[in-house]
Model the fold of this input.
Amino acid sequence: PSSTPTTEAVVSTQSTGTSSNPSTLLPLELVDKCIGSRMHMTMKNDREVVGVLLGFDDYVNMVLEDVTEYENTPEGRRVTKLHQILLHGSNITMMVPGGEGPVA
Done:
């Protein structure tokens, strides 16, 4: 037995109509199901990143491809296109699977 606490998220399956009982899903299991999917990430530094998740590690460092980075500056929103990027997990504040990025 490990002394490290486990963080669990409860995901309801009611919306699919398959069961009224919630199932337990660990956060890293949810991220693993998103590999190959488009992800919208909100970062600590007022940037948002949208791209296809290629992989991640136990620290939630993430590799994305086909990336668009949105940054709000005093001059307005700056948009940068990148082929591939490595995000440091400690800078990610929110992940939205299937997200298409910020609304204009």
